[in-house]
UniProtKB/TrEMBL annotation:
<dbReference type="InterPro" id="IPR016024">
    <property type="entry name" value="ARM-type_fold"/>
</dbReference>
<dbReference type="GO" id="GO:0031965">
    <property type="term" value="C:nuclear membrane"/>
</dbReference>
<feature type="region of interest" description="Disordered">
    <location>
        <begin position="1"/>
        <end position="31"/>
    </location>
</feature>
<feature type="compositionally biased region" description="Acidic residues">
    <location>
        <begin position="283"/>
        <end position="301"/>
    </location>
</feature>
<feature type="compositionally biased region" description="Polar residues">
    <location>
        <begin position="22"/>
        <end position="31"/>
    </location>
</feature>
<protein>
    <submittedName>
        <fullName>CBF-domain-containing protein</fullName>
    </submittedName>
</protein>
<dbReference type="InterPro" id="IPR027193">
    <property type="entry name" value="Noc4"/>
</dbReference>
<dbReference type="GO" id="GO:0030692">
    <property type="term" value="C:Noc4p-Nop14p complex"/>
</dbReference>
<keyword id="KW-1133">Transmembrane helix</keyword>
<dbReference type="GO" id="GO:0032040">
    <property type="term" value="C:small-subunit processome"/>
</dbReference>
<dbReference type="Pfam" id="PF03914">
    <property type="entry name" value="CBF"/>
</dbReference>
<keyword id="KW-0472">Membrane</keyword>
<dbReference type="InterPro" id="IPR005612">
    <property type="entry name" value="CCAAT-binding_factor"/>
</dbReference>
<feature type="region of interest" description="Disordered">
    <location>
        <begin position="278"/>
        <end position="303"/>
    </location>
</feature>
<dbReference type="GO" id="GO:0042254">
    <property type="term" value="P:ribosome biogenesis"/>
</dbReference>
<feature type="compositionally biased region" description="Polar residues">
    <location>
        <begin position="1"/>
        <end position="14"/>
    </location>
</feature>
<feature type="domain" description="CCAAT-binding factor">
    <location>
        <begin position="414"/>
        <end position="560"/>
    </location>
</feature>
Length: 627
């Protein structure tokens, strides 16, 4: 018969809880709290060695939770608690072992009470660490996150599986950012701190595939919870802040989920072993056609089936047999962690859950005020073409959301056009009115907003194809030239080299600068026409650019004269002209070195008027305007 454990009997737990609830702990009133932490940790270590009471854990939690505690004391307490729970996990006090199955019912009940009490204290400790992620002290935030993940590894190792329940608390804390009990500022922003975000991404999210997979899955579940979103409106912003830093998502061409990573990239080491495929799984793979028919008739379907990629066998070459990929919904968790297909599926699920929360359909209801969601939409569109679309199982699934952003207009619509262009050119999306939409963005505001440089980069990319009709290209050049008449020199400067490069690429457009008008009054160009193929721009000329040769700004006037010269110069590098602003233009003029003495209408007298260094007084000007 197994020896009955004596650690943490139920009676001691009840008495201790009553004492703590009736007033401050003895530890919190100690003159030397650091020494008290050391003493309590030693008591727990001795208790673990002798199977006696673990009640000092509660006192350590009180010290760590003290709102008036010094930073050094808090750090000392949380590290002491961490070491204690590591020992508890390694002693298997949080799980049921095979040896414990042979104990009597009384022993099992006693162990169950102990396990329940320890689990409660572990929950309290993890919640404390989660709240410290918003602490005012940066070192405490960093230590708390490190301890949270270190405990995750120890607890999961004891269970020989990823502790999902514990990890959910970490993800929830990262997305909701609960306020620290030690902070005095009640108006603290519930946004994730940059240092916490970067530490999480650099040390775990982008380096360990199991953490990445579970984070994406849990994030999509939280984003699906309307009650959580209503209570924590910054969840979406925090999710975007983390996801925009996500890297190393496996591509379809990758050989393994570990491609691009170094070393053992599973945080829970027991998951690093590649799962063996059972005979039942191989049999299931051979019956895909029958499974497809049965799945179509099923009333309820696993969400993972929606993200399954094509399961047709790959074409074999030589003696290598064709391989058939298993469906994601048919894999267990361990298999999914090692499946590129499963990682792409959970990534797609997360983004398809997030994007509808950024819908722009009701953004216009804010009137003249900027919708706070616009900034989030812009951040997503910034990374859409290079960090999101290539990793989706079906990039075409985000077409409706992107099209809605295009219709929204402004910088949001312009960035959405970039993502839409990628879908058209790389994923065979049919969107015949793309250039009509792009033409509609060329209005009086487009050359005045702060994203002017990005606009020219995108416009250069969209019009780079040699298969575009001349009527379309002429309309864009004519519209830009017309807009340049009423814009700043900083916007005219990139317009001229952009036009020059396009004329060099399409020599047939040279007629726009060599046409001589019969009378100098009529311009066949129709600026009110929304269809760029019906504006009659090809029958017009770029007289607007010629007018800039008389511009007051010398840089603009010099650039505009390039159209009067032979087109023998190579194309301009647009990056050299995209950073001009009023500030840069003023700085250039202010620092300009005068090579020669400026010509004066009258003879200069250095000792006359305001230039005199004597006390000579200026004559008083008097006239009718001064009376």
């Amino acid at each position: 018969m197994a020896k009955r454990p004596t650690s943490q009997p139920q009676q001691n737990f009840t008495v201790k809880r009553r004492k703590v609830s009736n007033g401050k702990s003895k530890a919190s009133s100690s003159k030397d709290p650091i020494a008290e932490v050391v003493r309590l940790e030693k008591l727990v270590e001795d208790a673990l060695a002798s199977n006696t009471s673990l009640n000092p854990i509660a006192d350590l939690l009180l010290i760590a939770s003290d709102t008036e505690g010094e930073d050094e004391v808090v750090v000392k307490a949380i590290f002491a608690l961490y070491r204690i729970f590591v020992q508890i996990a390694r002693k298997n006090l949080l799980v049921t072992t095979e040896k414990q199955d042979t104990e009597t019912e009384e022993d099992k009940a006693q162990r169950s009470v102990i396990r329940s009490w320890i689990s409660g204290k572990l929950d309290a400790f993890s919640e404390l660490l989660c709240s410290l992620l918003k602490d005012e002290d940066k070192s405490i935030r960093a230590s708390s996150l490190k301890l949270l993940f270190s405990l995750l590894r120890e607890i999961s190792a004891a269970q020989k599986a990823f502790d999902v329940k514990y990890f959910k608390k970490i993800v929830f804390a990262l997305l909701t950012c609960p306020s620290s009990h030690r902070n005095s500022d009640d108006g603290e922003s519930p946004e994730i701190d940059t240092d916490v975000r970067d530490q999480f991404c650099d040390n775990w999210l982008n380096t360990h595939v199991d953490v990445r997979w579970y984070f994406l899955r849990e994030t999509s579940m939280i984003l699906n919870n309307r009650a959580v979103l209503d209570k924590n409106p910054f969840v979406v912003a925090n999710a975007i802040a983390i996801l925009e830093k996500l890297q190393n998502i496996p591509k379809p061409s990758s050989k393994s989920v570990l491609d691009g990573l170094d070393g053992n990239n599973f945080w829970v080491e027991c998951l690093a072993t590649v799962p063996k495929r059972s005979k039942d799984a191989e049999k299931d793979d051979g019956d895909d056609e029958e499974d497809d028919k049965a799945e179509d008739d099923a009333e309820e379907d696993d969400w993972r089936k929606f993200f399954d990629e094509d399961t047709k066998p790959t074409i074999s070459t030589g003696k290598t047999p064709a391989r058939r990929h298993r469906r994601v919904h048919a894999m267990n968790i361990h298999e999914q962690l090692h499946s590129i297909q499963a990682h792409r599926a959970v990534f797609t699920k997360c983004w398809l859950t997030l994007l509808p929360l950024l819908s722009t359909s009701q953004s216009k209801t804010h009137g003249d005020k900027a919708d706070p969601r616009d900034a989030l939409v812009i951040r997503v569109l910034d990374i859409m073409h290079h960090s999101i679309l290539p990793h989706l199982t079906r990039p075409i699934l985000v077409m409706d959301w992107i099209a809605g952003c295009v219709d929204y207009g402004g910088i949001v619509g312009l960035l959405a056009l970039n993502a839409l262009f990628v879908l058209i050119t790389e994923y065979n999306l049919d969107y015949p009115r793309f250039y009509t939409k792009l033409y509609s963005f060329l209005d009086r505001d487009v050359l005045h907003f702060k994203h002017q440089a990005r606009f020219f980069r995108l416009l250069e990319r969209f019009l780079s194809s040699s298969h575009l009709p001349l009527t379309l290209l002429a309309s864009f050049l004519k519209r830009l030239a017309r807009l340049s008449l009423s814009t700043s020199p900083a916007a005219i400067i990139p317009t001229i080299p952009f036009t020059y490069n396009l004329l060099k690429t399409h020599p047939a457009l040279m007629v726009l600068i060599h046409r001589a008008a019969e009378d100098g009054t009529d311009d066949p160009f129709n600026p009110s026409e929304s269809d760029p193929t019906q504006t009659c721009a090809l029958e017009s000329s770029l007289w607007e650019l010629q007018s800039h040769t008389s511009h007051y700004h010398p840089v603009v006037a010099t650039l505009a004269r390039v159209f009067s010269e032979a087109f023998t110069k190579p194309g301009y590098n647009m990056e050299d002209f995209l950073d001009h602003t009023y500030g840069t233009l003023f700085t250039t003029e202010a620092k300009r070195t005068i090579k020669g003495t400026p010509a004066l209408q009258i003879e200069s007298n250095n000792r006359a008027g305001v230039l005199s260094d004597s006390n000579t007084q200026l004559p008083v000007l008097k006239g009718t305007l001064f009376c």
